[in-house]
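Materials and Methods. Structural model of Myo-inosose-2 dehydratase. The 300-residue sequence of Myo-inosose-2 dehydratase from Dyadobacter sandarakinus was retrieved and submitted for structure prediction as follows.
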Amino acid sequence: MNFENIHLGIAPINWTNDDMPELGGENTFEQCVSEMALAGFTGCEVGNKFPREINVLKKALDLRGLRICNQWNSYELTTKSFAENRQNFTALLDFLDAMGAKVIGGGETGNSCQGQMNVPVFEGKGVLRTADEWNSFTFGLNELGKIARDRGIRLAFHHHMGTCVQTMEETDRLLNETDPENVYLNYDCGHFHFAGEDPVAALKKYIGRTAHIHLKDVRQPVLQRVHDEKLSFLTAVKQGVFTVPGDPEGCIDFPSLFATIRESDYHGWIVLEAEQDPAKANPLEYAMIARRYFRELTGI
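The predicted structure was written out as tokens:
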């Protein structure tokens, strides 16, 4: 009934955006990890400026009291062979295993519009239309999850705007058609709210199957503009649809989310992942806003 089994991490996408490298392109790896530590976080995910040499990365993180907790994996089970997916997946597993991480994240990007600047995120989202398409997708994901499980790492699948797993209905089907010992959820309150779902109800429903948590807030006026103007996901991010928990411009009920976590047996990481334009939202300033807010709600 407390948060003693919870660690607080942060994603580098707040400093340097993987999908839009021009956002935060001026921010270095050293600045990113130094400010993560300065803001009071103890773990992080992996960004495009992180060195891939294990010893170099470990030394940089150890100096700052940080460790790797997860990394995004781009599943392409809808567009590439299982063998190709397995090759990329196991290579990332090797890296995460060497870094001591216990979770591998990511979502289905093969038929997604999330990275396309000019495709409306709601109207152009990925879709699995037939039972055969769902069976192929969930079979592949389940097999990859089994590979990860055998190495002591949990596959935490990220429901994501623009993808074939965006809504709670799609999340239900994904979880129902995969083995709970092989496939877990990377819960993200911001993406559920963006999708028109109730993030508190979603967490209550999925907390028992959740292996990793992302927390971000949503600026409702920007989200309304996404609907009205049929904007893409990337455009929404650039216009500030996301912000950090603790920002008064946000709209998500975080006290209820933390109450749900407190009442569960969830253990692992809660990660601040609120991608914004660093030129408009100073990453350190916003990381500190969220860190103070997390302390208020959890005591950690």
